[in-house]
TrEMBL record:
Residues 1-30 form the signal peptide. The chain crosses the membrane at residues 105-126. Belongs to the JTB family. This is Protein JTB. It comes from Myotis myotis (Greater mouse-eared bat).
Length: 146
């Protein structure tokens, strides 16, 4: 008989484990929707802060509703800082990650980890009870057969 011929897929406990792992992976990917900005080879299309030194004129602040619609830098994180490039003296905006946003993401992650840990702890307890019942039933049958 070939290996696995009598099986019909994963046992229910393993299916649940794989389902939870897939869900957790999907949830973690959705946590940080920051997209990467594409770099071009020529410096003419680059913002000045990528090609030269800059000074932060205004610290990282949340974008206003107007800025969110008009400034492309607001799209990735929702926060921008106003910068002044040293050589060209141009003013511009640069996307940034605020400490408050990082703190919220950290606590979301911690909550997810604790939730997943609780789910798996419950699964371990349930499985241990099943195994204990099986062992007691086995012992009971052995005692009855005497």
């Amino acid at each position: 008989m070939p290996a696995g011929a009598g099986r019909r897929g994963l046992p229910p406990g393993r299916r649940l484990c794989w389902l939870l792992c897939a869900f957790t992976l999907k949830l973690c990917q959705a946590e940080a929707p920051v997209r990467e900005e594409k770099l071009s080879v020529s410096t003419s299309g680059l913002p000045c802060w990528m090609a030269e030194e800059f000074v932060v004129a205004e610290e990282c602040t949340p974008c206003s509703t107007f800025q969110a619609k008009t400034t492309p830098e607001c799209g990735s994180t929702g926060y921008v800082e106003k910068i002044t490039c040293s050589l060209s003296k141009r003013n511009g905006f640069k996307s940034c990650r605020s400490a408050l946003m990082e703190q919220h993401l950290f606590w979301k992650f911690e909550g997810t980890v604790i939730g997943v840990a609780l789910v798996f702890a419950c699964l371990v307890i349930i499985r241990q009870r099943q195994l204990d019942r099986r062992a007691l039933e086995k012992v009971r049958k052995q005692i009855e057969s005497i």
